[in-house]
Structure formats: structure tokens, C-alpha cells
From TrEMBL:
It comes from the Bacteria. It catalyses: ATP + H2O + 4 H(+)(in) = ADP + phosphate + 5 H(+)(out). ATP binds at G269, P270, F271, G272, A273, G274, K275, T276. InterPro entries: ATP-synt_VA_C, ATP-synth_a_Xtn, ATPase_a/bsu_AS, ATPase_F1/V1/A1_a/bsu_N, ATPase_F1/V1/A1_a/bsu_nucl-bd, ATPase_F1/V1_b/a_C, P-loop_NTPase, V-ATPase_asu. Residues 131-224 form the ATPsynthase alpha/beta subunit barrel-sandwich domain. It comes from Oceanobacter antarcticus. This is V-type ATP synthase alpha chain. Residues 250-470 form the ATPase F1/V1/A1 complex alpha/beta subunit nucleotide-binding domain. Produces ATP from ADP in the presence of a proton gradient across the membrane. The V-type alpha chain is a catalytic subunit. Residues 56-90 form the ATPase F1/V1/A1 complex alpha/beta subunit N-terminal domain. Pfam families: ATP-synt_ab, ATP-synt_ab_N, ATP-synt_ab_Xtn, ATP-synt_VA_C.
């Protein structure tokens, strides 16, 4: 936080858009305060704002050379000039962690947009710094430990109720060594009130009372440093292999291209292919506790739509508002690129915080292409050696570092939390060969490639099954064999092969026409088309079909296998008439299946359609 009483320790020597060069100024006795990489500094423009307010422009140091450093400014640098004062905070860019995060809408620096709008209106002024957590709201804290107990970083001291969740209050992750609890209080407190006092213990177990610290309900953590890495270094947690799928209730995803709890995935596709709708349904119906949506650079209209729709969406888990378990961070394409680049790290840190409590967290990043473009702009201004398409040479490692923060963490007390990350990619012109998409594909384990052609034909989801893949289908085979049926993975792969074969026949038909292929090939093409129309497509606006539980997916999958095994017999006097009969048969069967998808489980309509399908698939 800025402090107007602090004396400047540096000054501006150059300005280039949102990049400034600062230089340490001489203090007493010829000393200079050292500059640190990723340190947060505040720039004080020489000219005050129109309302007479001194502006504090937040910036982060990117590169240091001697007494000078390059820093990216998170707001407009209009009016900033050479010689303007700079305040050093000595802190890294951090997230404020504590109760009150759920249901909030932040910008990329965790400024609460609703509070800013209430105080300053629709157009937010520059240089305003607001705390991420409400400092006035009181929370009922219930201790879980007793005086004299020994604690380490990350240990749970108690909890407060945050909606329907138990928000665990932990010893700050950056407190080193072992600590002894001197006292702890129960009652109603703000996030800044002391609720306990801890004293550090030496290696020999002696308490150092002169270094005692007060514990509050909140703590701060640098967003570019993984919380899980710190806990593992302390021996308080371990990373474990994802072992169960993330249920999204979307048939195409759960069956053919599954995600794992604690896994990673990406949804690349051109404009208008349905990324926003797909990610909205995944965030709404996935089997997770907490949802974090990071709009890192999308168009303002799309972000506004997300903010307006989520509070009105019903949470299928509770019947309440979906926002009760959601956090939204938004930096639209019209906001400074520096804040856009930071927003994804802010969202990841919030996800890791709830993961450390033992919750299942899903983070949707929309879109990582805009985030990478922000890095490209900053890299260009720093005059770094460019890589492919002018992206920084470290693009690949940056993308890997982001996705690798997802995973499954098991705490020393046995509590397990998962953090699943799904990023959408917006390649220009739908070109999947561009650097951001390729780097992402080399990192994630589920690839849901959206097709402009399928979207144009009104297929939803417009995921192309011929280019999409999931490494979790093999990795989670033990879970599928145990909870669905033995050989589930092989059965899924068999139907995927049907889609491939059907596509090959369709391409042949485009060249030779129906008369150029055999009747058997035509039947394969019709079966693949039925599978595509009935199982891979899902009606996002139908109350029943919008969300399909795994047991219903399994029943429909078994019906699809019956279709594949079925060998229709048609008596006709010519090949063209037999093919026409085949087309009529599968068109009628497709209609029955479509209506079955819309029918409520166990209803009379559902049973009637099931019986009609059984009759059509019965042996001749």
C-alpha cells in the first residue's frame, strides 16, 4: 500500500508507454536503496489529479541494471515525466488472502471493481489503490487449536464461515520455522484484527518472545510464487498424481476427452466458435467447490456479459447464486497490458489458496492468447530478442510455469485439494500452428479444439473430435474400470475410430458421390453421423440436455454401442434404393435419440422412446 509519509528513494529517468526507467537517488551518507526484481513501486506524478489528489501509480520492476531498473506501470502513464518521484515498497506484487473473496469481481491487481464504482463512478480514476478484502466486515472466528500448541506455516488455527464454506485460517505461508501459540481468541473480528499471538521457537525449542507476531484472518502472498511450492519445501504438503476425472456433465468431454481433477486443458478456437458458452457451462456444472474466472484481455462486451450473467445463474449444487462460490478477475483488452499480464497470476494464487484448504478449485483463463500478447508488448518495449511472431523467447517456459501450478496437493494432515486449470486460446484466423497454441498444446493434457466449420453448421459444442485429444483417457483408466466398467477406455477408443472411419467415407463421397462407395461403407458413415449428432452434440438451452450426469452418459453410450453392433438388412432392387433405405432408417433413429436426450430420466416419454429404439435395433 502507498504511504504518503514515505520519502522517495528513486526517480523517473525515461518513459515509454507503460514502461518506465527509474534510478535510485542518493540518500544520507551517499547510500542508495537497492532495487529488487518484481518489487512493487509507486510513481508520484508531478502534476496532481484534477480533484487535487496525489496519484500513486502502481508499477512492478522487471529488469535491473545497476542503479537503474525498468518497471511496468499498471495504469496509464499520461502526465508522468522525467524527474517524478518513486516510492519503493520492498514488497512483491501480492494477493490479499482471507475471508470475503468469494462473490467478488476484481481487476487484475485485486482492486474490487464494485467498491471502486460505488466510490468513483463508472469511469475509474487513475492512481486509486483499494484493499482487496473488506476491512470493516466482521467474521465469526472459531479456534481449532489450544494455547501452547506448536505450529508451522500453513497449519490451520481455526475457521470462519464464508457462505456455505469453512474458510480455514492458516499460519501465513511465509512464516519460517516452528511457532508456539501464546493465546488465541474466539469471537467476531475484521480481517485486520489480531486473533492470536505466536512466538518463534529456536532449534533448541526456546521461545523468542521479542519476535512474537500477531495472527489475523488475512495474509498476503506474492502472486508469482506458487503457494504449493512453499508448503512442499516446508514438508507440509506433497503433489500427487491426478487420479479421478473432473465431471463436467458434457458428454463429449467426460466420455471422449476427459479432464482430471487437478489437471490442465485448453480450448482453442476462432471467433464465434463457442468458447464462451463452453467455458460457462464447464464452470457452472463441473464437480468443483470454487470457480475462478480470469478474463485476461477479452473484449469488454464479453467480460460485461460474464459479470452480468453469473449472479443470475443458479448454482446446480445449492440452488443459490453461482456467484456465491465464484471469483471473477477481469482486465479487458482496453485496460493496460501490464495489468492484463498480472491478472492470470492473481487468479492462480487465489486458486492455490483455496486448494490449500482442501477444496476442489477450477480456474478458467479467457484467454491466454491476450495474456501472451501482453507479454509480447512488454518484451518489445524492453527490446528483448524476439522469438517466433515477435513473442518473447521465453513464451514456452512462461506458459508451462502457469499451467504447472495446477495439480493435486495432499497436506500433511491428509487433506487433499485440487486445482484444475482450463485456458482458452484465441489463435488469429483459427490457426492452431501459431506459437501460443503450440506451446499450450505441449503443456496441457486435454485439447478441445473448436472448429469454425462445425460452429457454422450449428454443432454444439463445436469441438472437432478428429483433432481433439486427452491424455487423461489412458491415465485415468483404473478409475474408469473401477467406477464405470472394465475396458471402458478401449470401448471409447473404438467409437472414436468409428468417427475417424466415418469421416474418411464422407470425404470419399464428396469426390465420388454415394454411388462410388459400397453399402457397408455407407452404413459406417451413417452410424458415425448418428454418433456425432446424438452423443457429441448437446443442447445448451434445454433443461435436461444441458447437464448430463455420468450414469446417464453411460446408458446412452451403451445404446451407441448397440447401434454400432446392429446390422440392418434392407431388401431393395438396386444399390441406390438400399442406400436410401439406410439413410431413412438412421435419420429416424437419430430423431428418437434426440428426443431421448430431451426426456427426463424415468419419465413415461423416456421409457417410450427407449422402447422404440429397442424395437428398431432388435435383430431382424
Amino acid at each position: 500500500m502507498s504511504d504518503s509519509r514515505q520519502l522517495p528513494t528513486a526517480r523517473i529517468v525515461a518513459v515509454q508507454d507503460d514502461l518506465v526507467t527509474i534510478e535510485s537517488i542518493e540518500l544520507a551518507a551517499g547510500e542508495y536503496r537497492p532495487l529488487s526484481k518484481n518489487e512493487v513501486v509507486f510513481i508520484l506524478p508531478g502534476r496532481t489529479a484534477s480533484d487535487g489528489r496525489q496519484e500513486y501509480l502502481k508499477a512492478e520492476i522487471l529488469r535491473i541494471h545497476g542503479r537503474r531498473a525498468d518497471a511496468q506501470v499498471y495504469e496509464s502513464t499520461r502526465g508522468v515525466g522525467v524527474g517524478d518521484s518513486v516510492l519503493q515498497t520492498g514488497e512483491l506484487l501480492s494477493a490479499e488472502l482471507g475471508p470475503g473473496l468469494l462473490g467478488m469481481v476484481y481487476d487484475g491487481l485485486q482492486n474490487p471493481l464494485e467498491q471502486l464504482a460505488a466510490s468513483y463512478g463508472t469511469f475509474l480514476p487513475r492512481g486509486v489503490d483499494v484493499r482487496g478484502l473488506d476491512q470493516q466486515r466482521r467474521w465469526s472466528f472459531k479456534p481449532a487449536i489450544k494455547e501452547g500448541q506448536k505450529l508451522r506455516a500453513g497449519d490451520v488455527t481455526g475457521a470462519v464461515a464464508e457462505g456455505r464454506f469453512e474458510h480455514k485460517i492458516m499460519v501465513p505461508f511465509d512464516w519460517p520455522g516452528e511457532w508456539q501459540l501464546d493465546w488465541i481468541l474466539e469471537g467476531s473480528f475484521t480481517v485486520a484484527d489480531p486473533v492470536a499471538r505466536l512466538t518463534p521457537l529456536s532449534d533448541s525449542g526456546v521461545a523468542d518472545v521479542h519476535r512474537s507476531r500477531h495472527l489475523t484472518l488475512s495474509q498476503r502472498w506474492p502472486i508469482r510464487m506458487p503457494i504449493s511450492r512453499r508448503l512442499m519445501a516446508l514438508g507440509e504438503a506433497e503433489r500427487v498424481y491426478p487420479s479421478q476425472p473432473l465431471s463436467t456433465t458434457i458428454r463429449l468431454v467426460d466420455t471422449f476427452f476427459p479432464l482430471a481433477k487437478g489437471g490442465t486443458g485448453c480450448i482453442p478456437g476462432p471467433f464465434g466458435a463457442g468458447k464462451t458458452v463452453l467455458q460457462g457451462l464447464i464452470s457452472r456444472y463441473s464437480d468443483v467447490d470454487i470457480v475462478i474466472v480470469v478474463a485476461c484481455g477479452e473484449r469488454a462486451g464479453e467480460v460485461v456479459e460474464t459479470i452480468q450473467e453469473f449472479p443470475g445463474m443458479t448454482d446446480p449444487k445449492t440452488g443459490g447464486s453461482l456467484m456465491d462460490r465464484t471469483i471473477i478477475l477481469c482486465n479487458t483488452s482496453s485496460m493496460p497490458v501490464a495489468a492484463r499480464e498480472a491478472s492470470i497470476y492473481m487468479g492462480i494464487t487465489l486458486a492455490e489458496y483455496y486448494q490449500s484448504m482442501g477444496y476442489d478449485v477450477l480456474l478458467i483463463a479467457d484467454s491466454t492468447s491476450r495474456w501472451a500478447q501482453a507479454m509480447r508488448e512488454t518484451s518489445g518495449r524492453l527490446e528483448e530478442i524476439p522469438g517466433e511472431e515477435a513473442f518473447p523467447a521465453y513464451l514456452d517456459s512462461s506458459i508451462r510455469n502457469v499451467y504447472e501450478r495446477a495439480g493435486v496437493i495432499r497436506r500433511s494432515n491428509g487433506v487433499e485439494g485440487t486445482f484444475t486449470m482450463v485456458g482458452t486460446v484465441s489463435p488469429a484466423g483459427g490457426n492452431f500452428e501459431e506459437p501460443v497454441t503450440q506451446s499450450t498444446l505441449g503443456t496441457v493434457k486435454t485439447f478441445l479444439g473448436l472448429s469454425a466449420d462445425r460452429a457454422y453448421r450449428r454443432f454444439y459444442p463445436a469441438v472437432d473430435p478428429l483433432i481433439s485429444w486427452s491424455r487423461y483417457l489412458k491415465q485415468l483408466q483404473p478409475w474408469f474400470d473401477r467406477h464405470l466398467s472394465p475396458g471402458w477406455t478401449h470401448r471409447v477408443e473404438s467409437l472414436l475410430q468409428l468417427l475417424v472411419r466415418g469421416d474418411e467415407v464422407s470425404r470419399m463421397m464428396q469426390v465420388t458421390g454415394e454411388e462410388g462407395i459400397t453399402l457397408d461403407d455407407f452404413i459406417i458413415q451413417q452410424k458415425a453421423l448418428l454418433l456425432d449428432m446424438v452423443y457429441l452434440q448437446q443442447d445448451a438451452f434445454d433443461e435436461v440436455d444441458v447437464s448430463v450426469p455420468m450414469d446417464r452418459q453411460q446408458r446412452l453410450f451403451e445404446l451407441m454401442e448397440m447401434v454400432v453392433r446392429h446390422k440392418p438388412v434392407f431388401v431393395a432392387d438396386s444399390d441406390s434404393h438400399r442406400k436410401a433405405a439406410v439413410r431413412t432408417f438412421y435419420t429416424r433413429l437419430t430423431g428418437l435419440f434426440k428426443n431421448l436426450n430431451y426426456a427426463v430420466d424415468g419419465s413415461g416419454e423416456y421409457n417410450r422412446l427407449l422402447e422404440a429404439i429397442g424395437v428398431m435395433l432388435s435383430p431382424p
